Amino acid sequence: MKILKGLIAAATVALASPAVADLSDILSAGTIKVGVPENFPPFGSLGLEGEYEGYDIDVAKLIAKDLGVELELVPVTSKQRIPFLETDKVDLVISSMGANPERAKSIWFSAAYAPFYSGAFASSEVMVKEFADLAAYKIGLTSGTLEDLEVTKRAPEGTDIIRFGDNAATLAAFTSGQVDVLVTGNTVAAKLGADQPDLDLQSKLIIKESPAFIGVKKGDFDLLQWVNVFILHKKLGGDLNEISETWLGQPLPPMPTF
């Protein structure tokens, strides 16, 4: 019932009055509407109490707190993120969105606020700092994935790469000790660590980066500038590192800016 109420409330928010655009309008209105993921843990999903939780939710809450305004969360799917900005349904999109030239034709992007990458994960005893180190271990990954392509291309010749048919089999192989190093996405590794808190799982090597950026409607220059200062402030103050530790189980890595 609580989850149902949460869904109804979220739908009501999404159909409410339009977002108020740039920074001065948000401050005057006393409310900011933020598009967040609805089914993409650990970045955003409905918790057991029917309220949204996750990395992106915590960032949205911090933004509203620093602005001194109320927060309205608007759940969005991947396809809705840009249209919701363009049609003033939201003021910002904080939904694990990568930046690319095609998307940049439609909206503006902030500096990166969250890590999203493919990496090598292993226990504290495994010494992997670069691709050459992989040769000393059994590497487990899912066949045909981006991780498979990158490791096959960059690992030393003769590296023992064991490929599995799907993510579930890959994760099972790592947890059972069939392989020493798990190569997967950081969100997959974070969920594995959350599901098995006693598992000794550390990030060892970033295979390919695709960090997340906050989406801002074109023309909202003051808001974009404020968001970039916010991200810098939260990096320097350790707030984003704390959120990363909470939801991804790892320190915040260096991330790109514009």
Characterization of the model:
The chain starts with a helix and ends in a 10-residue tail after the last helix. The protein folds into 2 domains: 2-116 and 211-248, D-Maltodextrin-Binding Protein, domain 2 (3-Layer(aba) Sandwich); 117-209, Periplasmic binding protein-like II (D-Maltodextrin-Binding Protein, domain 2, 3-Layer(aba) Sandwich), CATH 3.40.190. The protein has 258 residues and is α/β, with parallel strands linked by helices. Helix 5 links the parallel strand 9 and strand 10. It contains 9 helices and 13 strands. It has helices at residues 2-14, 23-29, 55-67, 81-86, 146-154, 167-175, 186-195, 221-237, 239-248, and strands at residues 31-37, 39-40, 44-46, 52-53, 70-76, 92-97, 107-114, 117-122, 138-142, 160-164, 181-185, 202-209, 212-217. It is 36% helix and 27% strand. The strands form 3 sheets. Strands 5-1-6-13-7 form a 5-stranded mixed β-sheet. The protein has a 5-stranded mixed β-sheet with strand order 10-9-11-8-12.
What is the residue-averaged pLDDT?
89
Percent helix, as a range, is 25-40%
Number of domains: 2
The arrangement of helices and strands along the chain is HHEEEEHEHEEEEHEHEHEEHH
- Main pleated sheet: 5 strands, mixed
Low-confidence stretches: 1-16
Specify Rg, calculated over alpha carbons: 20 Å
Determine the number of helices (DSSP H or I, runs of at least 4 residues). Answer: 9
What general form does the structure show?
A: elongated
Name the CATH architecture of the largest domain. 3-Layer(aba) Sandwich
Tell me the structural class: alpha/beta
Lateral arrangement of strands in the main beta sheet: 5-1-6-13-7
